[in-house]
Each structure stands twice: as structure tokens, then as C-alpha cells.
Amino acid sequence: GPLPSGLASDDLAKALLATGNSTERNPFGLLVRFTESATAAEVAEVLGAVGGSLTGPSLDGVGLYLVETLRDLDAALEVLGRSPAVKWAGPDAVVSVADLPSDPRLDELWGLTGANGIDAPGAWAFSLGDPSVVVAVIDTGVDLDHPDLEANIWTNPGEIADNGIDDDGNGYVDDLHGWDFVNNDADPNDDHDHGTHVAGTIAGVANDVGVVGVAPGVRIMALKFLSASGGGYSSDAVSALSYAISNGASISNNSWGGGGSSGAMSGMLDQAAAADHLFVAAAGNNGSDNDASPTYPASYPQDIVLTVASTQIDGNRSSFSNYGELGVDVAAPGSAILSSVHGGGYATFSGTSMATPHVAGIAALVRSVAPDLTAVQVKERLVDSSTWVDALSTVSGSGGRVDAAVAVGASVASSPVVSIVEPVGSVAEGSPVTLTATAVGSDGTDLSTSVSWTDSSGVVVATGGTFDWTPQVAGVQRLRAEVTDAGLTGLDAVFIDVQEVQRSLTIVSPNGGEAFLPGDAVEIGWTSEGPVGSVDVSIERRAQVVSEFAGDDALPILDHQTLDIGLEVTDTGEVGTVELGIRLDHTYDADLQISLIHPDGTTVSLASGAGSWRNDFGEGAADCSGTLTVFADDADTAIDSGTAPFAGRFRPADALSAFTGKSGLGTWTLRIHDRWSWDQGEVYCADLSMGSEVAEVATGVDPTVGSATWVVPEGGVDGALVASVVAGGLSDRSDAWFTAIAPPTTTTTTTLPPCSTTTTSEPPESTTTTVPPESTTTSSTTTTTVPPESTTTSSTTTTT
What we know:
This protein is of the alpha+beta class. The protein has eleven helices and 44 strands. A hairpin with a 2-residue loop joins strand 39 and strand 40. The longest helix is centred in the middle third of the chain and has 18 residues.
């Protein structure tokens, strides 16, 4: 006979996940939201058309259902989408925990107490957390009997244990500590470790046993929707969030992700916002930009979503962590975090899953001392109070790492209240804007004249309630206003999007081809536009090696293999600066490790795993005329913060300055290693250039002066030369090389008359060109060394 309703979409589907099946969606169920006006007859009609049935009551109480069908899901979605009774229909996607495999233990609870931690002890001076604040852990469950958690497990006040009755009428029988949405019972114990680890970071009990949580006085509601395999359905996530809201949890921790955007979850988050519930979510572990590639639930647009990136013990972003100045709100410790696991034990895990409970714990402390703050205000407090860190400036909107002590201290009732008046209209770099802040003490005293203003580097830029600020840099700039009264500090922060003013710096002379002599006064001229700052002028000796592999000569990048490209440099000068441009296509950039190796073996990592799932380094033509990815130490954007195809200049993973002072002579190696299977690619161009300063002409020159003079020294300067001008992040060099070589020596010998002889030792002009024999190799390296003019072509390609 027919299967009982819900057996396939619930029991069988969850059994598949429990066995580790890699399905991406519930194979027997769809999420369907019916319109408010849909009648029972209309619902029955459309369900009949897809062979579907409702598996139970509404998941959110307002029309969202899990519909079971054994028919083709895509075909059923088409039918449902055409029905006037259906407002929205979509797959019941599989989501999973957002952690990583365990790393070796680095330090005990560094995330709470370490130099780059959240300063939990500073927050505990104000509160350990109030038991009225309940944090729902929507995860794999929680070990309810763990010695570091048992005392802090939420107990449903309206339920009588094990009497088989839904005492509080909330639709769940004997739900004493939460609910298991995987097995549909009242036992949300953990069978995976993940949820217990999260819970320990939020509210591990302060009992001199094991670990302690960020907020050891609050309560944990255990909501299990992820199975022992770590996977679960978004329908159960919706149900879990609905339960949390309905049963008094003002905060939820969501260390999970996957499945894409869902109308069902988005609708549930609208309800969470209406209930003033704070939804704390992990940013994800793909090392990618959430602004460019949203991940869910972290990227839902509701204001009550607080998205968290991960930092490591040295204060930098964890390599696995997603980031985004718009799509991520804050950053917190997430690498090598020690916490509780089921069975009464402890373990060290890494992931944005581990960063998220640090933030949920701080939010719980803030709600403990300031219960009147709304969820959005709590979120803003955590963003505004973050410690600004240069290395994290593009990781999240906060530009730094959460600070529990500052956030909680600014939230206690007796702290001053500070408020910045947001500037109206656009703000351009170089143009002054007036900023105003008000500050009021707990007794009503006006403290505005005592306000201290700090910029994103922590430097005090002004004091008082009003000051004129002139931004010097484009992009999002952060300013914080603080005032301290009776030992308590209140604060507010403003994030101003400063519009870029067009600026440029261009050398106009010399621009290549000139032949100067000792004693010549060489005018180095430039033009500038916009506020470029003072100009430094120098003469550099340049060497460049360009290798092009166009068309059939393109070099293959193969799975699990290393491609070595030799670049022969014949210049014997000392290395100053090094830049490397590449153009390659690859279908999954994160597979690649790219390095540059000096002839003596010194290796610099240019990129490792950058670009996530996106394609290519450089864009346009598949040769050296295309737009290259140029690795340069003076680039504004780090390669790990960029987005493929990385067109333009990027700072490499390791500094190219490691080569400074070494001889440039010999064979350099561009090494490209493909670490994984399935995705492959081709290399089309490698462009290595290096320079060494031979003369400092002038420093700190007003850009409007437009020129500086270099006098060629007696004896001249060997090699191919270029003029260089640098001002802040702007720089330019001569378009081509020029020379400043002393002329050949002329000797005159005179004897007594009647005979006289004059001998000139100047040799005749000569040009030597060496052309290699034809070769069938697939790469070519061209080295140009001048003067005298000569061209040497060689071929070196090694694939290992």
C-alpha cells in the first residue's frame, strides 16, 4: 500500500543523510508557501497535480509546509510555480556544519583571553550573563549532561518532564530542553560534537572544570536539526528557528551553511526580526568574498542577521574564512578553539563555526546588561566597539575584531550614551566634513565637550563635540567617538564611504631612447592630477624577461602536477624591486599554488588557494597582450582579498622583498602547482621585471613643481635605465629605457716633425645578434639586455 505521509520526505530522507549520502536536497520533499487566500480545495488540487501531501502542520505557522512527493522534483516545482495558490516553492536543501578538521592545540582558550582574543575577562567585570537570556544553539544538538554545560541548559518552564503531554501547548511533547528535529523527539542530545563545541564557547559553566564560555551565566536551548553526519534539511532549520523564537530565545547561534538562498528561511528571518531576535551566523569556510558570492544563511539581508568571519591566533584572518566588507559584519577567533564535545570531553576545532559562538556569547552579555537594546542595536554595538585592525580592514564591515569588554562596558546602564550625527550627502577625499557627537552621562550631564575622536588606526584626531575632518583616503573610513565618565566608557562609531577623487602621476621625460653623457643635466618631468602627495624621484636600472606561450604553445596546467617555467636573467645588478605578471586560464583558481624562485633557491609564495572556485589569473587575450595579474609589493590589494580573474596589481602572499639585495643573474623559476583533481588550465604569459636604484634624485617634492634634475655622474652609469616617480600609492616609470654611458676613450699621440701620427682607439660600430636554432619546445624566454643591443632567445620548460 502507499507509504504513510511523511515517511519518505522525513524518515527516509534523514536516514540517507545519516549514512553519509551526498545528496544536495531532500529527494522526496519540497518547501511550499501557500498564499494567504488559498482555500483548502485549491491546496488539495495543486497537491494532487504533483502527487503531493502535507507532512505536518505549517513549519512557521503562516503557510510554509514541507510537501512530500515521489515524482520528479523539478517537474513538480514547475507545476507548483504556476499555481495561483502557491506563493513560493523551492527545494528542501541540505545544509551542513561550518567547521573544519581539528588542528593541533595552539593555546588554551586564546580566543577569550589571548592578546588577539575578545577580552572576555574585561567583560566579566560587568557581567557573567543573566540566566533570563537564552541562546538557541541550532546545530547537531548539545550534550545535556556535559559537566561544563549541564547547569546552563535551558529548561522549559511550562513543561513537565516525561508525562507524555504537551503541557505548554506549543506543539511539542515533553520538550524540556529543546527539540530534536532530525528524529522528531524531545531528546536534542548531540551525536556529532559540533553543537556541544559551539555551546561550550557560548556558555561553558564557570565551575573550575574544563573550559568556560564567553557568557557563563546565560542559558543554552538545544535545537538539533543536523544529524550525526553533520547534514540536515533547511525545512528543519526553519522549524528550529521558529521554535527558538516562540519559546523565548532572544539570540540564536547558526554555525552552519549551504543550500543557497531560500524563500522559506528568508520569511522565517522576517518573523525573527519582528520578534526582535538576533540571528548570529557563520560567514563560511571557502576563503571567498561573500560580497561577490553570497553564502547562506550568512548573506540574508535582514538587519538582525549578524555574520561572523574567523581570525587566528596572530590576529589575521583565518585562511579558510570567508570575508566581505558588506556581507560580513564582524570577525572573532575561530582557529584552534578549545571547547566541550559530547561524552564529557574537550577538543580543539577550527572554522567560522567556532568564531560565531564567541560573538553570540558577547551578544548574550550585552543583552544581559542592556535588555532594552533591540537586536539591531546589539548588532551595531558589536560592530562599533570592535578593535580596528589593519589586517582585518577588508574582512568585515567592522574593520576589526570584536571586543567583549568594550561592547559590554558601553552597554551597562551607568555608561555615558554617545551618538554621532551622520554626515548628510557624499563625502569626497580631500574635502572637509563637519562631524558632531553628543554625549550624556547617566545622571543627564552633557559630556559632549569631553568626546574623544579616534580614527581606524586608533589615533586620537580631535576632541570635543564637533570637529572638521578631512579624509585623505577613499573607501569606507571609520571614526569612533568615545567619552569616559566615572570609569565607564560610552561610544558610537560612524562608517563613512569616502568617494575617490581622480588622481594620477605620469612621467613625461625621459621616456626611453635617450642617450645621455656624463655631466648632462637630465630633467625628470612629470604631470599629476588630484591630491597625490609629495613625490620621490630616482633612477633605476631595469631588467625584464617576457615569456609568451600563445596558441598551440600554451603550457598545460595538469592535476597534481608542477609546472616550472624558467626565466633567464643576464643582468648582473643587485635586485631592488621585483614584479611578476602572469596570464593563465584555470577553471578553479583555488587549486593553484604559485611561487617565484630565485636562482639561489629562495622561494616566495605569490598565491596559494586564492580565488576560490572562480577562474583565471588575468583576463582578455590569451597572450602577453592581455591584462595580466601583476604581483607587486606596493599594490593596494592583497591577492587573498582580491577576486578572480585578478586583473591588475596585487600584493603577493609573501613579500617579493625577500629577493632584495640578491644578484639578479641566473635562471629564475615561476612554479605553478595544481593540488587537486578535475580542474585544469593553461599558461600564456610570464613577465618578470626587476629594478635597482642607482641614484636618489629627490625626495618629498611638491607635485606641482613637476620636475627634478639628475646630473649624470662622471664615468656614466652602465645598463638600461628608467626614471621613477613615487607618491603614496601612485608610481610611474619611463615607458622604455635610456642610457647614460661614458663614451669610448680617444687617445692622441704626437711626435716631433716632420712626421706626426694620430691614432684613435674608438672601435667601429658593431651589432651582434644571436639567433637560436629551430626548436620544438613549447616555451620561449626572451631576455633583452642593453646596451649594446643584443637579443638572446632560449627555451626552458619543466613539468614535474
